[in-house]
Amino acid sequence: MEKFIVAGEVQLSGHVKVNGAKNATLPLMAATLLSTGVSVLHNIPQLRDITMMQDILTLLGAKIYRENGSLIIDTTNINKEEIPEHLMREMRASVFLMGPLLGRFRRVRLSFPGGCAIGPRPINLHLKALEKIGAVVKDRSGFIDAEAVHLTGGEINFDFPSVGATENAMMAAAVADGTTIIRNAAREPEVADLQSFLNKMGAQITGAGTDTIRVDGVARLAAAEHAVIPDRIEAGTFLTAGAITRGDIVVDGVIPEHLFTAIDKLQEIGARLDVGSGSIRIRGGELRGVDIKTLPFPGFPTDLQAPTLAMLTIAKGTSIITETVFENRFKHIDELGRMGAKIKVEGRTAVIRGVPKLSGAIVAAPDLRAGAALVLAALAAEGISEIEQVYHIDRGYEMLEKKLQGIGAKIVRRSP
Ligand code: UD1
């Protein structure tokens, strides 16, 4: 298994550019199933999660090519509505296929999804939403069968603004016979990007980005072309890398409005930020402890919780982080402890007592964002660190070590 070797205490400097968003790309790839034809998606990162989604679509009958940073997806010959169990287990995002397959075939069969080890991650909200627009869902010991002789549209009121369930509902409702209103919808930028793509395909959707989405179903959708929005989580990770190393870096290719809560927190922590129209400069200073609660957008993103927590381990004073979105998303904490961090966890709350310095250690990435957090900690730590299980990090960051090298970090990838 590959690992990263990092020599810490280098102040990062220079420009780094972010890729297209993984979390926008995955539902868009799924949405292509709603048409028969050739869709083109631009600005697509080269990531394990995306390759896996390519494999699933190919298995369902799609033809997919990658050309530079674009994916060309021909969904003319999709001929299966069942998602193989081993692929469902490997990637939770495969649950996005439920809405489009139901829309296309009026039938879908899948097992419960897998993915990052950050809590049980149920799919009850997805299923409930699909039932509200006419699907009949049957749980057959580990398998889900959903059928919709008639997708009618309907009223969906989410108990919690789940990103994936909102996206699934939008995709199925786009080709339902009636109108669907989704209330307490997720407001994440990736949901708005899905609306843009679906509307280019001919859907009639308004309201994405707010908590109420209206979908007027249409008979059919056509293939379309779309450039995916920048990855706000990758951007936030680089900004945090700038702050934790007390460096001076510019993160290019971002939409700052997607990051304003994180920007506010970085300022509160003591970093200096200059926000331009498509780039953000960060200069690290003396870091101060802060309190953070993760929340659905526009609140502080749970995907930046681990990287931010890593930074707070060397901030002056005490910080409190409350993780309200996912239980069990504190797997980086034990590993950070090996590097000298002082953190106590009680339920969903972590209390971090800042220490002057972390020291290099051998640690293992327990999941995607926790892995990124360990890389950031290693960049700031005294001495050499080894980060094992890099494959988790490769799920969501394209060539993280190359991009960090570009801004001066001493990091290399080693194969066994
Ligand atoms: C998406 C992102 C993920 C991010 C998360 C929250 C993708 C591919 N992934 O995940 O990176 O961390 O949003 O911003 O876009 N829940 C239920 N029942 C459901 C669905 C969700 O209880 O049917 C719970 C989950 O267990 C979790 C919370 O709702 O506690 C948030 O999940 P959700 O917003 O659905 O996240 P994902 O779409 O899985």
Q: What's this, in brief?
A:
The protein has 416 residues and is of the alpha+beta class. The protein is 31% helix and 25% strand. It has two domains: 3-19 and 230-414, UDP-n-acetylglucosamine1-carboxyvinyl-transferase, Chain (Alpha-beta prism), CATH 3.65.10.10; 22-227, UDP-n-acetylglucosamine1-carboxyvinyl-transferase, Chain (Alpha-beta prism).
How are the SSEs ordered, and which strands pair?
Elements: E1 3-7, E2 13-17, H1 22-31, E3 38-42, H2 48-60, E4 63-67, E5 70-74, H3 85-90, H4 98-105, E6 107-111, H5 124-132, E7 136-140, E8 143-147, E9 155-157, H6 163-173, E10 179-183, H7 189-200, E11 204-206, E12 212-216, E13 225-227, H8 232-244, E14 248-252, H9 260-269, E15 272-275, E16 279-283, E17 291-293, H10 305-312, E18 318-322, H11 332-338, E19 342-346, E20 349-353, E21 362-364, H12 368-380, E22 384-388, H13 391-394, H14 400-406, E23 410-414
Parallel strand pairs: 2-14, 3-13, 9-10, 17-18, 21-22
Antiparallel strand pairs: 1-22, 1-23, 3-5, 4-5, 6-8, 7-8, 10-12, 11-12, 14-16, 15-16, 18-20, 19-20
Strand order of the largest sheet: 21-22-1-23
Say which CATH homologous superfamily of the largest domain is assigned.
Answer: Enolpyruvate transferase domain
Distance linking N and C termini: 6 Å
CATH second-level architecture of the largest domain: Alpha-beta prism
State the share of residues found in helices, binned by percent: 25-40%
Hetero groups? uridine-diphosphate-N-acetylglucosamine
Show unreliable segments. none
Overall pLDDT: 94
Derived from helix and strand composition plus strand pairing, the structural class reads alpha+beta
Major sheet details:
4 strands, mixed
